[in-house]
Each structure stands twice: as structure tokens, then as C-alpha cells.
Amino acid sequence: MEFYYSDHTYDSTEKVLWIKDGVKTISLDMFSRFHDPAYATLYREKNFKVIIPNSVERLDYQCFLEMRASEYQIPDSVKEISFDVFEDNKFLKSIQWPSSVKVISDGVFRACTNLEEVVLPEGLEVIGDCAFQFCEMLSKISIPTTVKKIGDNAFYSCSGLQSLSVPVNVEKIERAAFVECRNLEMVELHEGLLEIDNLAFAWCENLTTITIPTTVESLGTEVFKCCKKLKEIYIPKALYDKYGKDYIKDDTPVEVIPYNEPMVKNAITNSKTGKENTEIVLNSKKEFKSFCGTIRTNLIADKRKK
Question: What's the rounded Cα separation, in Å, for the pair 22 and 72?
Fold first, then answer.
């Protein structure tokens, strides 16, 4: 059975929603006529596909709010996806972000609780505030190297994430960006990062060790609050002298260890080759220990006696 409207068609047999060719903006009004039985039927449907034509240039505020579609086909003609567009889409499991859109606006995937995978293209520059908030099943995401900003609460309560790499172009990790990522075990931070804001990794209960790059100049308060398994934080000596152990400000049993700046820069540079068995000469067992779990290449400690 098909329902025809001036701007879209829904086929309940094929379980496909077609936006009509010629539409330039998809707005919330397109799907808000709840008094109409056909629209009520659409909002009762689930696991259907939405096909967006090449004429569409903008997805407007909350236009697919609470939609129960499982798939969206988004063309590169789309240049802007406004905030909260896919909010509370409970049946969405995976999506490919169009390369034509450089900004993931605030709250775009908020409360998409079954979203497991998002494919983000190179060229993406901004992940907005609360973009993936409460996406608790999100287990896999590769953040492109072109991303410059990860917003406040961007990955709040993404409890399915186990590892992540913050791109080299990100200069600031915003407030509570990864708070309550409870299964996060490994975080890779790169040289070039300047600031880590308040509560950035708070309640990351499975995080055990982390190395803060030598370029970081500012640490917020309670960055690692309630990280119950966190045992070691390797921090540049300049930051250690500035903050000491005080910035955690809770009872997390963690050792804050200052390290030697040139040695760390050398190790990070070599690790970017991605080659197995990369040899990095370290001056002591303590320095070797400081990279366990943070550098992906196999480090070989220098056993020469001084």
C-alpha cells in the first residue's frame, strides 16, 4: 500500500520512503501531520529505508525526529544537516555521513540508542555538542584526521566504545566530551593537542592508563574523575609542575608520573609509521613502562648498562 503526498511517497509493502525529486529542504513539517491516518501509519512503521534525491540540499531541524527508519540514503547534494536531525531514531544501526557536509551539528544522533557504526569521511571538520550523546551501542567509530573540533558531551555515555584515537588536528578536547564511556579501555592522544577541558574522560571506568602529549598546556578539573581502573597517567613535566595531582580531585587511585619531553616526542613520531617491531631506544625501564598500552608499535627497551 502506498501513501502519496506532494513531497514524498511511502510504500508500506516495500518499506521505502521516497522524498520526491525537486525537494530542496526536508523539514519537520513534512512529517508532522499526525491527524492524518497515513502519517500515523508511517510513524508506527519500523525498519524502513529513506531515500533522499539529489535535489535535496538541506536536512532541517529535527526533520527525522523519532523516525523508526533503519537506513538513510543521503546524497552528496546535501550541504547542511541541521541539529537534532536523527534524534531518537531507535532503529537506526549504521549510517554513512555524506562527504559534502563538513559539520556534524549539535545533537544529530542524540539518543540513537541502537546506532552501532558511523562511517565518517575525510574532510569532516567538526563533531558538534552532544552529537552522539546516549548512543550506547556505538562500538566502532574512526574519527577522520581532518576533524578539528570535538564538542561538549559529543560522545557522552557512548558505553559501547572500547578504543578511540583523537585526531592530530584537534587542539582542544571539550568539556565532558567522552564522559561515561564506561567500556573505553584505550585512548590515543596526539602531539598538537593543547587543552583538555573539565570532565573530559570522567566515569571512563575501564580506562587503565593514558599518556598526555607534551603539547598540552591546560588541564581542566576532574578530567579523570571516577575512572576506577585508571592506575597511571603520564604527564609532561611542565604540566606536572603546574597541576601536580590536584586536577583529578577525587579518590581515583592513580599514579601521576612526569616524563621526559624529548623522549616522548621521539616515541610518538616513530609510532606513526605503523610498522611492526619498530625499535625505539628508551633510557630506562621506567620510561619503557610509561608507554605500555599507549604506543601501538612494539617497543624494545635499551638494555645497555649506563
Answer: 18
Q: How confident is the model at residue 261, as a pLDDT?
A: 54
Q: What is the pLDDT of residue 237?
A: 82
127, 106 Cβ separation under 8 angstroms: no
Task: Name the CA dihedral angle for 91, 96, 101, 106, rounded to a multiple of 10 degrees.
Answer: 40
Q: Which long-range contacts (CB under 8 A, 24 or more apart) does 151-155 make?
A: 151/106, 151/126, 151/127, 151/177, 152/176, 152/177, 152/197, 153/129, 153/177, 153/179, 154/127, 154/128, 154/129, 154/130, 154/178, 155/131, 155/181
User: DSSP assignment of the chain, as one string?
Assistant: -EEE-SSEEEETTTTEEEEPTT--EE-GGGG--TTSHHHHHHHH--S-EEE--TT--EE-TTTTTT---SEEE--TT--EE-TTTTTT-TT--EEE--TT--EE-TTTTTT-TT--EEE--TT--EE-TTTTTT-TT--EE---TT--EE-TTTTTT-TT--EEE--TT--EE-TTTTTT-TT--EEE--TT--EE-TTTTTT-TT--EEE--TT--EE-TTTTTT-TT--EEEEEHHHHHHHTTTTT-S----EEEEE-HHHHHHHHHHHTT--TT-----SSHHHHHTTTTT--SPP-------
CB 102 within 8 A of CB 126: yes
Q: Can you give the pTM of this predicted structure?
A: 0.80
Highest mean pLDDT among 51-60, 221-230, 249-258, 265-274: 51-60
Residues in the chain: 306
Residue 101 scores a pLDDT above 50: yes
